[in-house]
Amino acid sequence: MSEHRPLLKSASLISAFTILSRILGYIRDSRVAFLLGAGTAADAYTTAYRIPNLIRRLVAEGAVSAAFIPVFTRYLAEKKEKDAWEFANTMLTVITMFLTALTVMGIVFSPLLVRLFASGFGDTPGKLELTAGLNRIMFPYIFLISISAFAMGVLNSFHRFGAPAFSPVVLNLTMITFSFLGGLFGDVTRTLAVGVVVGGLMQLAIQLPPLLNSGWKLQLKLDFSHPGVRTVAKLMVPVIFGVGIVQINVLVDTQFASYLEEGSVTAIYIADRVMELVLGGYAVAVSTVILPLLSRQAALRQMGELKTTLNFAARIILFITLPATVGLVILRQEIIEVLFQHGDFDAASTALTAWALPFFAIGLSAFSMVKIIVPAFYALEDTRTPVKIAFVAMFLNIGLNFLFIRPLRNGGPALATSVSAFFNSFALLTIFHRRYGSFGVGEIVQSIVKFAIASVALGAVAYTVIHWPGFYTGGMAQRAVALAVSIAAGTASYFSASSLLSTRELAELRAVRRARPGALL
């Protein structure tokens, strides 16, 4: 347990900043919902924002998380710090050239991209044109956020997680500020779009001081023959394809939703954001911390330690996500109503969003496990296996969308995404087990049984409290208090049940709280 305390403490730090960021992200989304509702303007803004965000995941997460960090960490593990910095400068130069070209092309071909993402918008006059215009404004965000992700990768490799984790907080604060500037840049939608770009700039700026303090002397160095660059290129090709497959699922879901009733795209987006509040709260935090650790263990050929780390991370993630799934399903209507129902976001918008939320929520543990198992393959420089599985999951998602879209409406794309995520996670776990040996699956299953029992207690208590006669009534402030009390009561019941069941993960988390804090910023 002692060797995993730094992992949990780092994850806890990232989780705290991520939860703060998600709260601010809610305020940001709430402001957008207040200003735009769940109609044509909201669908246009949401889709325009999704396009650069998708490409950001394709480029930044594909290049940094999957390819750069394992190679950079190997240099550091082998005590070759000078070579590591030379490699970092070379990679930054290459990435900057690529991102510049990509940003220019995105601005020029924005109308074609919008049609690719939401061709159904053509049925509403002016909707495609509005989306394309907003997308052009936002496209430089890709350049800024991708360079920011590169800086984050360097800092994380040195186990410095504070500034990278706090940078999304700055992004959301900036976007919230711009939501109060009204028609400063022509109209409210364009002002919101400008806020995205300025937020990306601020997100990069906050990471520069710790990056320079880490010892990096920034130099532009173009060398396509650098061995580290060649290794990253080999890793990136399947990774970008693999991440692209995952993002095609987003494209598929958006396309199907674009043919449904007005506001369906926005409803799916908001439901997904609520689900990601939990996913980002701890699952993303653990996956961020685990990749440099797994990469170091793989570089030193410490396979036993690597599998122990994977087992530990999986149990901690499931300890958090299983009860969260139950809570989101039980309290779905009240959560959306309290968080978003104001301004142009009316009761109909709430009902539309609350319908999609449980279909996303049931896949929460699967989404989380994918974020844990994929870094294990990346750390072992095996980027092909996740791609192959993601490719099959993509076709499964497409088929399930056709199957679910008619009976479940906007819940169809959400359920299709969740089911394909379960397939993705189970397939990767099975392959890892067969290829590299057991990583304690039996222990994980035993823990899951305890989590499930404790989650039933959470669900029963939360349902009873929120439906107590006269409890969830009155104005929105009174309902917000009632929702908070229901969540607190459910959470208390979960931890109480976990304690009675002697859940080891609860003891591990308590041990971290008692440990002396480390230097993580």
End-to-end separation in angstroms reads 22 Å
- Spell the H/E element sequence: HHHHHHHHHHHHHHHHHHHH
Strand composition percent: under 5%
Low-confidence stretches: 515-521
Q: Portion of residues in helices?
A: over 70%
Could you say which overall geometry the principal axes of the C-alpha atoms support?
globular
Arithmetic mean pLDDT? 81
The count of β-strands is: 0
Q: Largest beta sheet, briefly?
A: none
Q: What is the gyration radius calculated from CA atoms?
A: 22 Å
What do you see in this structure?
The protein has 521 residues and is mainly α. The chain is 82% helix and 0% strand. It has one domain (2-514). The chain has helices at residues 5-36, 40-77, 81-108, 110-117, 127-138, 140-157, 162-179, 188-205, 208-213, 227-258, 264-299, 303-330, 332-340, 347-361, 364-379, 384-408, 411-436, 441-466, 476-500, 504-514.
